Amino acid sequence: MDENQFKDYLSTFTDADKVLSTEIKPTIRINTLKIPKEVFFKTTKLKLKPTFYEFGFYSEDENSSRLGATWEYFLGYLHTQSLSSMLPSLILNPKQGDLILDAAAAPGSKTTHAAMLMQNKGAILANDVKWERASALFANIARLGVINTKVTVRDATKLGILKYFSKAFVDAPCSSLSQPFAYKKFTPNLSYELSKTQIKMLFSAYDSLKPGGELVYSTCTYEKRENEEVVKLLLEKRAGAKLTPVSTELDFSHDSGLSEYGSEFKKVARIYPFHFHSEGFFIAKIKKG
Ligand SMILES: C[S@@+](CC[C@H](N)C(=O)[O-])C[C@H]1O[C@@H](n2cnc3c(N)ncnc32)[C@H](O)[C@@H]1O
């Protein structure tokens, strides 16, 4: 797609001008596994501004692109993570007794956030299909002081694990249309191929849940074929699967799922940059009956 085609495409479901003109602000998550928030603020000189999430902050430093080169990053006191990307963990709401699958975990933003919310209790299986990406996952787990996580390198489209986990993330590989200039590489065929992987991953992770388990499916793309369509297929094919609202204790602004999928899809979230100056995301929460 060229830029005009992308604009036309966005206009079919949202305010394209607003999406394209909104500034994306860099954010960090304070990692309380390494440092209490109050102590962090006594020691850091970074210019940070609060967001709706108590541990998520906008970086107002001129050198925001170099946050990964700060001593706070090196010591694991912070993780550079978009605000939208903090939501899947908040929505999955991991507890200390949970056994969690992160089916596509590298480089580990959601895994390490979940570990922080669990205060390093319970257990996480953080999986990715690529060895080279798993090494970034290892590095982040070590830097951020996560000790409740085991890393595996497997194809999550065929996990073959049944009724084992209490919760799961499927943060799927996607066409990334919310990322700068990703539209240039977008083709319907690419999206179709990705959706085949997404469907298999979602089914495989869903089947690995115990009855009553919960799963958060997320992507950083706007394409319905990779979002609502994937979730709809699971709801049709797995009798016990039900959408539950993506609400958290936090009040974050978002749009519902596309109306053509019916009122049930009011329970999912579409996040556009204009909601809170962060990257676009799609998030759905599914409960296993
Ligand atoms: C959006 S990224 C995940 C980001 C990660 N959840 C985070 O928060 O840092 C998607 C990941 O899916 C992985 N992936 C792609 N196909 C996969 C498969 N068949 N099984 C497992 N992981 C896969 C990619 O290697 C990539 O790391």
Could you spell the SSE succession in H and E letters? HHEHEEHEHEHEHEEHEHEEHE
Tell me the number of strands.
12
Binned strand content: 15-25%
Number of alpha- plus pi-helical segments: 10
CATH level-four homologous superfamily name of the largest domain: Vaccinia Virus protein VP39
End-to-end separation: 41 Å
Rounded average pLDDT = 97
Number of domains: 2
Classify the secondary structure makeup into a structural class: alpha/beta
Small molecules in complex: S-adenosylmethionine
CATH architecture assignment of the largest domain = 3-Layer(aba) Sandwich
Helix content: 25-40%
At the first level of CATH, the class of the largest domain is: Alpha Beta
Please outline the major beta sheet.
Answer: 8 strands, mixed
Shape: globular
Describe the structure.
The chain has 2 domains: 3-19 and 82-287, Rossmann fold, CATH 3.40.50.150; 25-81, 2-Layer Sandwich (Alpha-Beta Plaits). It is of the alpha/beta class. The longest helix has 20 residues, at 188-207. It has helices at residues 3-11, 16-21, 37-43, 71-74, 83-92, 109-117, 131-143, 188-207, 228-237, 273-276, and strands at 27-30, 48-50, 56-59, 78-80, 99-102, 123-128, 149-153, 165-171, 209-219, 242-244, 269-271, 281-287. β5 (99-102), α6 (109-117) and β6 form a beta-alpha-beta unit. It is globular, with a radius of gyration of 18 Å. It starts with a helix and ends with a strand. The mean pLDDT is 97. The protein has 10 helices and 12 strands. S-adenosylmethionine binds at residues 85, 103-110, 127-130, 133, 155-157, 171, 173, 197.
